[in-house]
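Please fill in the sequence for the structure shown.

STRUCTURE ENCODING:
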């Protein structure tokens, strides 16, 4: 689930989706804007599996757990290195 396995493609692994979310957070954005931009990326790649909203939220949970993102004033931001 977090990492790809022989039954879970690499593009569906939470770590991969989380990496794409981090890439989209070059500037602070709302959760809905990140979700829309991630869907735009998915639609542009024909071999990519569709990411459902619950899978997207799980990737956000993983990033919060790893202290990679924060929520400030209603916006998702990359966490500062400590």
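FILLED IN BY: designer on duty
SEQUENCE:
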């Amino acid at each position: 689930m977090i990492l790809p396995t022989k039954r879970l493609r690499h593009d569906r692994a939470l770590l991969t989706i989380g990496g794409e979310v981090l890439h989209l957070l070059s500037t602070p954005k709302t959760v809905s804007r990140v979700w829309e931009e991630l869907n735009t990326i998915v639609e542009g790649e024909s071999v990519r599996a569709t990411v459902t909203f619950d899978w997207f939220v799980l990737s956000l949970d993983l990033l919060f757990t790893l202290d990679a993102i924060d929520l400030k004033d209603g916006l998702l931001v990359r966490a500062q290195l400590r």
